[in-house]
């Protein structure tokens, strides 16, 4: 796990620290108490007798005893909020901190706990407000500016986030986590050049942090530098084979290079790397655990069932399944996704695409109709829907939708493919050939267009043209 005050490392998604970072005089007051407590634990009991584990209830009872004697004991109040925070009881931690602030409004530790707790409760605006109090109380502490930057990034205030993170770096130029967070923020602003510069500074300062390399990998993916992204992911995995983002960076890079089987195995490696850890950003479910007794895809299914909005990586896996011609597996996966996310429009779109590959045109038509509710002007949806309608006998609806797709995206090779296939189905071979050739003007390496063109040429008696384009379908040129 990375150090406590930087991101959980997807560039477009930011997380809060797991433990509060010391700030101001609050922790200084707590340290003697904690030391005494640990000393008592270590020294209690007679020789050869074991010491029972101290539970949260035990700590709270002791704390209640102290506060019963002195309800305004600032150290006990701070300790109470810390007990709840470390036990992940965030609402209770906030309440306890607020009680402490009634006694001492300048307690930066309590403001910090409030901010971190709101962060874990996915309330970034409230978190940012609390951290503003922290930096006002500790204006020379770079850690506080760093965490304020994280909070502001989550609210969408990227300008404020950059200002806070730059302040942290100004105070401590060797603060690697702040450089990393600055890179993440620039990534979210789509300023990939500055993001890469920041990630490189973080790596130079702390070259053994795998997440810095995986973050850089995401930025390189954005630049379409797939070889660079693979290299960054490999470095991250060499440091820590369980670095989940590194596996997914590798999968994305392999996918974009056309190495679909390698991509599939990389994603699978990422799922397996999650087997004993909290799910990452893709699912957005902080507390959903994948346990070691679940297979990777089963575990992922369980996670998505807990948070149905986040199906991105599962969706990508289905694309890979399709690319390596596991069409039925792909369709089955989409059926599972849509069973628990019926309002997931991209799933309906992709299911329609896959159903066409299996010649299940009724299923494709129904899926595209659902997708059109959210994507009424998506050229891929319109052309796929049109083709399915055409095969099912509605030629006019087919051409209306395909032509609308071409009007919206004149360079859509797939729309011309579907137009040609529809023409061919109704015996309009010359029109089909014209549509295929037009599509190849926009995508001269489209194997499906070459294959469809060769099929019509063979039917027209153009054996030589059919053979040539059959070969082109194989080599993609």
UniProtKB/TrEMBL annotation:
Keywords: Repeat, TPR repeat. InterPro entries: TPR-like_helical_dom_sf, TPR_rpt, Ycf3/AcsC/BcsC/TPR_MFPF. The keyword Repeat applies. Coiled coil: none annotated. It comes from the Archaea. TPR repeats lie at residues 108-141, 142-175, 176-209, 345-378, 379-412, 413-446. Gene3D superfamilies: Tetratricopeptide repeat domain (1.25.40.10). Pfam families: TPR_1 (PF00515), TPR_16 (PF13432), TPR_19 (PF14559), TPR_8 (PF13181). SMART domains: TPR. SUPFAM superfamilies: TPR-like. This is Uncharacterized protein. It comes from Methanospirillum stamsii.
